[in-house]
Structure formats: structure tokens, C-alpha cells
Amino acid sequence: MGFMDIITGVVKEILGTVLFPIKPVIDPILALGDAMVQLLDLLTKLISLIPKLMSLFTMFTDPIKLIKDAVYGVKIALQMLYDATLGYIIGSFMKNFYLIWQIYQKILRNMILQ
């Protein structure tokens, strides 16, 4: 804790004591200030979304682009379904092959040890 932290703490304590009678008047004003800052932040975020909304509007009004996107989405969905199914089948096959290989190795070890 530095020297400036101590001074800041003392000044805050003194100001808190001196300004205590008018604290009920100051708190709503500070709350309004915070609300305005948050409202301004929300407004800037909404304004930044306007170009994206305009591009969506142009996309929906262009039927060829909409059809191309739909076809692309269906193609990707079918590809993902195919990959998942194939991965499941090959994964099951490899798992069974691995288990059979382990059993075969155990049988060979037992034959060698006997």
C-alpha cells in the first residue's frame, strides 16, 4: 500500500464525513449519470448493428443469393451427416478390431509362456 493510497483513503473518509448530509441528494444524480453512460453504450452498439441489418435486408431481397445460401446449407448439413455416420462406423470397426487384436496377443503370449 503506497503513500498515495493512504492519502486517497484519508481524503475519501473526510469527504464522506463532510458530505454525509447531502449524500441522499448526490446519490440519485450519480445513478442518473451511470444510467446515461450505459444508455449511450447501448445506443452505440445498436448504431453499429445498422450496417449488418442493411446487408441482411439486401440478402433477403435478392432471391438468387438466398437460394444459393440454402443449397449451400443443405450441402454442408449432408456432408456433416455423412462424415459423422462414416466416423461412427469406422470408429466401431476400429474399436472391435483393436479388441480382437488384444485378445489375439493374449492368446499368443499364453501359448509362448506354456
Q: What's the SSE blueprint?
A:
Elements: H1 3-18, H2 23-61, H3 63-113
Entry summary:
This protein has 114 residues and is an all-alpha fold.
What features would you describe in this structure?
The chain is mainly alpha-helical. The protein folds into two domains: 61 residues, no CATH class; 52 residues. Helix content is 93%, strand content 0%. The model has no long low-confidence stretch (mean pLDDT 80).
Features:
114 residues, mainly alpha, 2 domains, 0% strand
- Total number of strands: 0
Number of helices: 3
**Count of domains:** 2
Cα end-to-end separation: 76 Å
Biggest beta sheet summary:
none
Order of helices and strands: HHH
Query: How large, in whole angstroms, is the Cα Rg?
Result: 35 Å
Mean pLDDT: 80
Helix % is over 70%
Structural class: mainly alpha
Shape verdict: flat
Q: Oligomeric form of this entry?
A: single chain
